[in-house]
Design a protein that fits this description.
heterodimer; A: alpha+beta; PmbA/TldD fold; 2 domains; 10-stranded mixed β-sheet; 7-stranded mixed β-sheet; 10 helices; 22% helix; 39% strand; B: alpha+beta; 5-stranded mixed β-barrel; 24% helix; globular
């Protein structure tokens, strides 16, 4: 597109040390069904471009939704003005960009059936059928089906000579059943958190069966007992639940911008400071976390990030030791790394990209171990499925998590369903208490499509994953 | 209304064939300077446009949103929304678009906010950094200016538009193990006084040196307005008439009953000019003075158009929250209990139990321990599990009111027996 060259030539003429332009069109379709009422059936298109200029160790970023030569040139000028103003405040404390080569490449999310091409009727018919089935259960007061489908088309060019054509897509179905019984209400949710794939995934999910299961489990949950007073117990956490735990307690604290204090005013900083690299015991020897922006069907898999750095795979925690961060071109050199791990991403064209969590997952155990064997080997504990309440401090140390469905374990057996279970723990206690992880046959990916961070606030998506794992001696109890 | 908006409205009115439509147009022009560790890390400038059209054929609905206003894009907007509606299933809860209504006229964005330049904004950032450097500390924050225009048109005759603007400045200052934050948002940039903000920041910062270890327990707290704001948002989110009527919230069957503490009232008000308020919502619900809670009695809950029609009430929306305070100073509050904590802010609040209204979260940006009427020292941050509506039954004193983030008018509160359940390492 002619605007790529126009913007970069103009930026260089104005004295940019580095510049890039990202022409970015986001097309999203949302369908929200609640109790057979379509609350929102909408298509959204957000189309425009953002231009970043780096000069004298500072960024300027301007954006526009107007496609014309004049508008592009005006946007370049505005980006340059903001870069110069930024530099005037930095007084020699400027940023530096890690070196990177140029790339000319294309990337497209592999998919068989484009979710946006499937007829609305087919989608709504499926959602209605699922909704109706859940409402047939006496005691189910609220049945929700939310379907989100999104495509991002980006053309990226930089003064390094990079030219990228990137098309990514994802789909995220979520089904919720809420039961009301004797003054209490409890929900159960089917939510795999989205996946970078096509409509074929939804067809394979057997959503009617899944919805039946969650409706029945919501009815069990609302009538279940709470756990009682907090005491130290074993926890077995399923992959869906662990996805959120690792997101909050490993993903965010290992974003290099937080480590550097760049999120101090809003999202917070990190306990995992640079002097801990290669020596800090983050978890037991079983714990290996990979950053992997090449993961098949991964929500952060896009070929390249918004710095024009290719997707990579690396150990964030290796054999329990903090190994490396997720980094960007403007954060890496701050700790002496002369390369970026490619974690710079923006939500829409009008967002300046920021350091985000990559696809991040816990490697499965290396010895054969099934979830049934893990439960059979546990004397006193709780098995938690799905995601619930979650809260963590702004240094990412202390946290409290709930869940979506709970079973009490006694002497190797699931003896009764529970509700309102919480556990409290902290870094590094929690990951060091992991003494067993099921093997690769039970590893499952789980996505996050709404990770909030930054000022102005942005949302990002990434995939986590794990096999069921056990954590010993954790404070587990009821709420309050 | 500017000519750009007029053209969009005229195009949609002329070309939309649906039985009903609601058209929302938002324009935003923003400048945002983000700084961290005494340097600017992000700097963003640009305008955004959002055109959202919801249409209905009988009771089948569809909607589309675009961010460009060319005739081709507007044609796509109408066609997409109409095609979706035609293909959709009927919505049993469909409500016709808002009819023509009268609403309180609205002042446009303040001149000082409109005229605020990027050069002046960067000077504010520089002064904030200089202040931190003098104390050998690091400051991070955001300086932002926003100008908005909103226009709403419906097939049934609603026409409304308003302009607004805001200026915000936040600063988090860190040195060794001491960290604190202040932030403000003003409708009118002329109301912003950096000197006052820095004075407040420095006073808060100097009071927090050498935090000492403190275990979680039930203890009296003085909640400063920013901390109260964080708790109230979650409580207000659960105060939903429909979901309460359906048995899903703690407020089910509580309308008309004394469900809160007798010293707690809550209103939405248009009477405070310092507060910023949209005169109508995107679905045409008018902002009107309303009592939600009166001396502990739950009087009203926000109610959407469908549910209001079903139960025969007027739809209502929550905006500009005003909670009447009292006259107690923090010094007087400290004398009312043997010991307690002063809380600046909370962080990462989440629902633990929707039906009970129970929340969890952490303290943030400075916690002070007091005893026998005097501040003793700062303490580490703590986790709470607490029920806000129950908490209002434990109000021991109310302080003077303060405008927070330009849409809340809140007092300081002294609360007995606040339920802390865990602590963190800093």
């Amino acid at each position: 597109m002619k605007y790529l060259d126009l913007a970069l030539n103009s930026a260089e003429k104005l004295g940019a040390e580095y510049a890039d332009i990202r022409i970015h069109k986001t097309t999203a379709q949302r369908i929200y069904l609640r109790n057979l009422s379509l609350k929102n059936t909408s298509n959204q298109v957000v189309d425009g471009y953002g231009i970043r200029i780096f000069k004298n160790g500072a960024w300027g970023f301007a954006h526009s939704n107007v496609y014309s030569d004049a508008a592009v040139l005006a946007t370049v000028k505005k980006a340059m003005q903001t870069a110069e103003l930024s530099a005037s405040a930095n007084k020699g404390r400027g940023l530096r960009l890690a070196p990177e080569r140029s790339y000319i490449a294309e990337y497209e999310t592999p998919l068989c059936i484009d979710p946006l091409s499937v007829s609305l009727k087919e989608k709504v018919d499926l959602m209605m059928e699922v909704n109706r089935m859940m409402l047939n259960y006496e005691g189910i007061r609220q049945a929700v089906f939310f379907l989100l489908m999104q495509k991002d088309e980006k053309l990226f060019a930089s003064t390094l000579g990079t030219r990228l054509d990137i098309k990514t897509s994802f789909i995220d179905p979520m089904v919720i059943a809420t039961a009301v019984h004797e003054g209490d209400s409890q929900s159960r949710t089917f939510d795999e958190g989205g996946r970078a794939t096509g409509w074929e995934w939804v067809l394979d999910l057997e959503l009617m069966e899944k919805a039946k299961q969650i409706a029945e489990e919501a009815l069990i949950k609302v009538k279940a007992d709470p756990l009682g007073p907090e005491q130290r117990r074993s926890l077995i956490l399923d992959p869906n639940h662990l996805g959120l735990t690792m997101h909050e307690s490993v993903g965010h604290p290992t974003e290099l911008d937080r480590v550097l204090g760049w999120e101090a005013d809003y999202a917070g900083i990190s306990f995992a400071t640079p002097e801990k690299l290669k020596n800090y015991r983050y978890g037991s020897e079983l714990i290996n976390f990979m950053g992997d922006n090449t993961l098949d069907e991964g929500l952060a898999t896009a070929g390249f990030d918004d710095d024009g750095v290719p997707g990579q795979k690396w150990h964030i925690v290796k054999d329990g030791i903090l190994n490396e961060y997720g980094s960007t071109r403007d954060t890496a050199l701050e700790i002496g790394l002369n390369y970026s791990r490619g974690c710079n991403r923006a939500t829409y064209y009008y967002n300046q990209p920021i350091n985000r969590i990559p696809n991040l997952y816990l490697m499965p155990g290396t010895k054969a171990l099934t979830p049934a064997e893990l439960i059979a080997d546990t004397e006193d504990g709780v098995y938690i499925q799905g995601r619930g309440s979650f809260s963590i401090d702004q240094h990412r140390v202390n946290f409290q998590f709930g869940g979506d469905f709970f079973w009490e374990i006694k002497n190797g057996k699931l003896i009764r369903p529970l509700k309102k279970v919480l556990y409290k723990s902290c870094n590094p206690e929690f990951w060091n208490s992991c003494d067993a992880i099921c093997d690769e046959r039970f590893w499952r990916p789980f996505g996050v499509v709404n990770c909030g961070k930054g000022q102005p606030s942005q949302t990002a998506r990434m995939t986590h994953g794990s096999a069921p794992a056990r954590f010993r001696n954790i404070r587990v109890g009821g709420s309050q | 209304m500017n000519s750009k908006l007029k053209k969009i409205v005229q195009y949609v009115e002329k070309n939309c064939q649906a039985d009903d439509f609601t058209l929302n147009i938002f324009l935003e022009d923003s400048h945002e300077t983000r700084f961290a560790q005494n340097a600017v890390t992000q700097h963003i400038a640009g305008a955004n446009l959002s055109i959202s059209l919801e249409v209905a054929f009988d009771n089948k609905t569809g909607s589309c949103e675009v961010n460009q206003d060319s005739p081709e894009t507007l044609a796509y907007l109408i066609k997409t929304a109409e095609d979706m509606a035609k293909l959709n299933q009927p919505d049993p809860e469909y409500v016709a678009s808002a009819a023509k209504q009268k609403f309180t006229s609205y002042e446009s964005a303040a001149a000082a906010t409109k005229e605020l330049s990027p050069e002046r904004m960067i000077e504010i950032v520089k002064d904030s950094i200089r202040n931190a450097e003098k104390q050998e500390a690091k400051v991070s924050g955001m300086t932002e200016k926003h100008l908005y225009e909103h226009f709403l048109a419906t097939k049934n005759g609603f026409r409304g538009s308003y302009e607004s603007g805001s200026f915000g400045h936040s600063m988090t200052i860190i040195k060794a193990d001491v960290e604190t934050k202040i932030s403000c948002t003003h409708k009118d940039f002329a109301s912003f006084k950096l000197k006052d903000e820095l004075k407040k920041l420095n006073a808060q910062f100097s009071g927090l040196s050498s935090p000492q270890n403190f275990d979680a327990q039930k203890i009296a707290v003085i909640l400063r307005p920013e901390a109260l704001m964080e708790l109230l948002w979650f409580m207000c989110w659960m105060m939903n008439r429909r979901e309460s009527d359906e048995g899903l919230t703690p407020f089910s069957d509580q309308l008309g009953k004394r469900f809160f503490g007798k010293d707690f009232s809550m209103y939405s008000t248009l009477k405070n000019n310092e507060l910023s308020c949209a005169p109508f919502s995107g679905d045409g619900i008018i902002s009107e003075d309303r009592t939600w809670i009166e001396k502990g009695k739950l009087v009203n809950m926000p109610c959407n158009c469908f549910w209001a029609q079903k139960i025969g009430e007027k739809p209502s929306r929550l905006f500009n929250i005003y909670i009447p305070g009292g006259k107690s100073s923090e010094a007087e509050m400290m004398k009312k209990v043997p010991k307690g904590l002063i809380i600046n802010r909370f962080w990462y609040i989440r629902t633990v139990d929707m039906k009970k209204g129970e929340l969890t979260g952490m303290t943030r940006d400075g916690v002070l321990y007091f005893e026998n009427g005097k501040i003793k020292h700062a303490v580490n941050n703590l986790r709470f599990n607490e029920i806000p509506h129950d908490m209002t039954k434990r109000i021991l004193a109310l302080g003077t009111n303060q405008v927070v983030e330009s849409y809340l008018d809140l007092p300081t509160m002294l609360i007995d027996g606040f339920n802390f359940v865990d602590k963190t390492s800093f």
